[in-house]
Amino acid sequence: MHVTVIAPDKLVLVDGNALELPNFDFDETLHAIQFDGQKGHIEFETPDGGVTTAPVSELEVQPYLEAWKAEKVRLEAIVPPEPTEAEKAQKRIAEIQQELVSNDLASVRPLRAKTAGTAKEVDELRLNELEEQAQKLRTELAALLTD
């Protein structure tokens, strides 16, 4: 498990997955940590603006890893808000429009047969069925558009 800590940005990456930890108490002098699961190094800012490095152990990385895991669980638990009535209506309008397009496409073959004079009873039945579906969809669409 690779862990990277970028303290000035309050950022922790675990196996490349970054999470910002704004409420985590980062050491003020900590600059960064790189840990590959076995070994790594820690960088501290020095008073003169430089950086010093030292080996880092899994024990020193553990608090950052635990904070990252807790934040991941917290974010995954957030349930998106229920869509508003307007959002639900817009979604249904888009669905109806797509259904009408699909309905039109489904009518091409029976219409072609009818135009060519080769339509069978099944073609007529299919066209009637598609027209009934389209009328119901258009009625629903009109109601949604007037709300």
TrEMBL record:
Annotated coiled-coil segments of the chain: 120-147
Keyword Coiled coil assigned: yes
Keywords assigned: Coiled coil
Name of the protein in question: Uncharacterized protein
